[in-house]
Amino acid sequence: MRSAHGIFVFLRSMVDNPTRIGAVLPSSSALARLMAKQIRLSPGEAIVEIGAGTGVVTAALLEAGVPRDALYVVELDPRLAEYLRKRFPGVEILQGDAATLPDLLPAHRLGRIASVVSSLPIRPMSKSVQKSIVEAAFAVLKPKGSFIQYTYPPFSPLRDPSLNIQGTRLGRIWFNVPPAAVWRFQKKV
SS3 for 117? Predict the structure, then answer.
């Protein structure tokens, strides 16, 4: 559910930094649940969420059973990061750039991340920025870990062959504004 305060924080951040916010509204709870449904977490592993915004996906991950101490949330916007710290006590909120993920996470978590869940507006980013974010994500993921991303167009948001990843569309949420598809990416073997 979208709180009035959460929408206000989102809109204020969008006005201050329009190129960093890729949506007209926070993600719907149905989209967040579809993303959270993809998570498989084994003992000793953790989940990283990047581009958390107001925490709609964060809430869905917690509701799906991800323990608070196994969830790392990365948000570039300082205002949104502070909002997330207040909304999700006990969850590690890291204010920083997803392209520096290996530097943001504790060393003992590197290679023990089951999934990176992304709400970043990655499709319109330059190929070099996409590459830096995807490479950072796969640098922290366990072998066969997943990068989960949503996008609005019906085609894959990550189509650069130099990324050496393969994507699978997992579903589409028509009632999101605008409608969105969820994709899982893994390294090609």
Answer: strand
Which residues are within 8 A (CB) of 124 and not within 5 positions of it... i.e. 6 or more apart?
22
Q: Given CA atoms 5, 81, 122, 165 in this order, what sign does their dihedral have?
A: negative
Q: What is the pLDDT of residues 52-98, one digit of tens each?
A: 999 999 999 999 999 999 999 999 999 999 999 999 999 999 999 99
Token representation of residue 1: 């559910």
d(CA 137, CA 32): 19
CA-CA distance, 29 to 56, in Å (whole number)? 6
pLDDT per position as a tens digit, 109-128? 999 999 999 999 999 999 99
Q: How far is CA 188 from CA 24, 62, 130, 144, 166, in A?
A: 33, 29, 17, 9, 6
Cβ 142 vs Cβ 45: under 8 Å: yes
pTM for the full predicted model: 0.85
